Structures are given as structure tokens and as C-alpha cells.
Amino acid sequence: MKLSFRKSRSFRIIGAVFAVLGIAYAVYSVTLTTALPQLANAKLRIKTQKNEIKSLTVRLEANKAQLQVAEQEAAVMRRANQLIREDESNRQAELNRLQGELDFYQRLAGISGTQAGLAVYQLELNPTGSTRVFHFLLTLTQNLQRSDITSGTARIDVEGTQDDRPVTLPWSKLTEGNKPKPGFRFKYFQQLDGYILLPEGFTPSQVRITLEAQGQSGKPVSRSFDWVVLAEAAANSINAAIQAKPENDLEQEQPPGESPDNR
């Protein structure tokens, strides 16, 4: 009886093992039939994505090359526009210079509609290495129809503010060492040059030139110049000189001596 029971138990164990194996095989079969297509689809998608990545990489490189070419073209265009603007600026500066010379000689010849005798034609004011020292170049003219030599002195006064108060600085306050006023003696035109020194805390606004000619009857010749306009003209002249010449060709300005009489 015990033997029969043992056999029956063995059969049940064997049956259970086969049942488990059958279930495992069934699961394996189901998994195999469903997973293989999914695995194949996954491989296909990976391959497709790799191809897309490769295509995008090629397009990206092409776009980078096009962008580089576009940047180079843009740089060339910017440089060309800069050269055109510089050329136009130089041409305009040259035109202004020629127009100024034409006006100057027309004034001397008396064909510009003005028959004035002694006159202050132009004042140039240029900065130096010091913010308080400025170099001036004063041009005086006289009509060619006047054959007499004119002589005298030029008084330079600078108007402005100091400590929030209006102040007028005469020539004696603009120089050191009690230098005499600039003197002139000419028949047709003459240029006077020199330096003025502004005191600390002084803000200039206007320069007034008064010509005191010897033997002159009537009111002295006088003309005023706006300081801001003079400063802007000096800056434009410096910029035009820098654009017209390479930096290493610019000569360092030397303080000029007294200009000779122009006869």
C-alpha cells in the first residue's frame, strides 16, 4: 500500500513538472511569436533614425558652409560700404576745402558781393596734449582793391562760465609771461597762430576776435566764434586726416612759429 502511494506521488510530481514545462514552452512560444516582430520593427526604426540623423548631419554641415559663405559675403559688403562712406567723406571734405578756398579768393578779389576792407576771415582752434591748452590759427584778409598795408594787433577774448558765473577772459589771462597780443602787418591776407591757456574750472562758450589797426578810424573790426562749432570743426578735420592717411604716416604736429607776412 505504501508502494502504491509512493508511485502515485511520483506520477503527480512528474505531471506537475511537465505541466510547468508546458506552460513555460507556451509562454516562450507566445513571447517568441510577438517579440520577434517587435524586435525587427525596433531594429528597423533604429536604422531609419540613423539614416535620418546622417541626413540631418549632412544638411547641418551644408547649412554651416552656406552660413560661413553668407558671413564672408556680409563682411565684404560691410567693408565695401565702409570704403564708400570713407570715400564720400573724403570727397565732401575736399569739396568743402575747395569751396573755402574759392570763397577766400573771391573775398580777396571783391567779387563775392562784399567790399569789406580789413576782416577776420577764419579761426581754427585745435586741441593739444593738455585739456586746457589750445592752438589757434587766425586768418585775416583785406580786399585786393585796397593797396595799403594794414598793421595792428589782434585781441582775443574768450567768454564762458566759471563757478556758475559769466566770465570774459582777456588775452592777458589766456597766456603766461605777459605775452604781447598777436600782431599783424599785411597787404592782402595773413595767418596768425599761437596758443591759449584756459584756467581750471573754466567752461568756454565763445571766442571774440577784435582787430585794432593802426590809423584806423571808426569802430574796430570784431567777429565772434562759437566754441562748440570750433571744437566740432577741429574734430572733423582730425578724423578726415586719419581716414586719408595710414596712422603711421601721420606726422606729429609741431608748434608753428610766427607766420610771415603775406604780400
Could you explain the architecture of this structure?
The protein has helices spanning 2-109, 171-174, 227-244, and strands spanning 119-127, 133-141, 150-162, 165-169, 183-186, 189-197, 202-213, 221-226. It is of the alpha+beta class and 263 residues long. The chain has 2 domains: 1-114; 116-245, Immunoglobulin-like (Sandwich), CATH 2.60.40. The termini are far apart.
**What would you call the shape?**
rod-shaped
Q: Beta fraction of the residues?
A: 25-35%
User: In total, how many domains does the architecture comprise?
Assistant: 2
Largest sheet: 5 strands, antiparallel
Helix content: 40-55%
Number of helices: 3
Outline of the structure:
The chain is an alpha+beta fold. The chain has helices spanning 2-109, 171-174, 227-244, and strands at residues 119-127, 133-141, 150-162, 165-169, 183-186, 189-197, 202-213, 221-226. It has two domains: 1-114; 116-245, C2 domain (Immunoglobulin-like, Sandwich).
Strand-helix topology:
Blueprint: H1 2-109, E1 119-127, E2 133-141, E3 150-162, E4 165-169, H2 171-174, E5 183-186, E6 189-197, E7 202-213, E8 221-226, H3 227-244
Antiparallel strand pairs: 1-2, 2-6, 3-4, 3-5, 3-7, 7-8
Helix pairs in contact: 1-3
